[in-house]
Amino acid sequence: MTGSGATTGSEVRGAIHEELAAHGCSAPADLPDLDLIGLGVNSATLIQILSALEDRFDVDLDMEQLFAEPLTVARLEAGITRAATAG
Questions:
Q1: Which of the residue ranges 4-8, 23-27, 83-87 would you say has the lowest mean pLDDT?
Q2: ∠ at Cα 81 (76, 85), nearest 5°?
Q3: Would you give the DSSP letter of residue 69?
Q4: pLDDT given for residue 51 in this prediction
Q5: How far is CA 23 from CA 6, 7, 85, in A?
């Protein structure tokens, strides 16, 4: 994983919600632990969102780790933040 600088949780969270909206999806901002697939985000759309977030934050996400458990906004935010600070 690589990163290009300091990334705040709120910045990442906002970007996740922006990408979800750009793909016609949404997740309640006050419930970051809801499974995105359970909210109706299909896997193909989720891969597009993850790719856009990797580009936006200049990180390489561990997809196997992300999909090991239900993918939520909170888990995605933590994964991006961790990857951004690792580099």
A1: 4-8
A2: 150
A3: S
A4: 96
A5: 26, 23, 27
**Structure-token match 């690792």, residue found:** 86
The answer for 43, left when phi > 0, alpha when psi is -120 to 50, beta otherwise, is alpha
Handedness of CA 72, 8, 44, 62 (dihedral sign): negative
**Token couple for 60:** 């390489």
In the structure, what pLDDT confidence band is assigned to residue 87 with cuts at 50, 70 and 90?
A: low
**Which value, in Å, is the radius of gyration of the alpha carbons in the chain?**
12
Q: Which amino acid is at 36?
A: L
Max CA distance (Å), the chain: 33
